[in-house]
Amino acid sequence: MSHWPPQVNALPDELKRIQNKERDLRWLWHHLLQQGAPLPPEETVPASERPGVISNVINTHTNPPAEIERIKAAHADSLVDEDHLKWLDKDDDRLLIWMLGRIQHLHFYGHGYTIAVPSTAPEARRDAIILTLDLWNTTADEKKRFLADERANWGALRTPETDTQWIKLKDGTQLRWAWEYLHKMFKALPLPPPVNNRDLHTSVLASLDHMAYNHPAERKLFIEKMKKTWSQKKYRDSGKAKKPYYMQLTKDTRTKLEELAKSRDMTAPDLVEILVQGEYDRISAPQEDSAEEPTTGA
Prior knowledge:
Elements: H1 16-19, H2 22-34, H3 50-59, H4 64-78, H5 93-102, H6 125-135, H7 140-157, H8 161-164, H9 172-184, H10 197-210, H11 216-237, H12 251-263, H13 268-284
């Protein structure tokens, strides 16, 4: 398969500090795409060749020196220092999924170009979050404020464990049901299908975390309803749930049945069930010979 052929192997000297940082180089590639540069999808070009491809694009600009200065200015005002990103732990999938939900409104841009955050694989979530923030068309100071606010929100809005401990990591059936339930109720975060039980569990919890914005009480009610719905499903699936059974009775028998049920403070179907079970147990019990052997006198 052919790929974009670079004519040089490095960025212009004025941009060398960008070339030496993976994050910065990724930002530059997507920034130029936003500006309408004729670049192919990043993943189709080997990493070692990307600086050369970018250099070719800059060199074909109508005014390369001016374009370089524009890039330097945009770079300085777009990327926040790593210190503001350290709390985005690469190993905390629940946090990263939650944060993907928080930046959905940031990833739309002009020129018909968007970052496909929803299709991000688990191992690439942190990079996608940072790239989206880097390309957000606002100042670095505004990004710092946003990150500080979201860090505080994560600590305050994470769903208490007492509300979610019924959602079991090892119960694949329950987790698949929970994810489908969230989708049906339009509460699931826009993510690709989770890859395993752990990812399912994390995606469910992160979606519940995300519900708390401005509506913590509503989230609690939602979780209670969700838990009740799961319990009902388990009961139905167990085969113990009652199914309607209709039988014809004379008016006199129906009246007597209702009177008997009322006298025992129960419903007619419950009384029928007790009577049937009792009779079944009686005829199913082992028959014992209750006749006594005749005794003989002395």
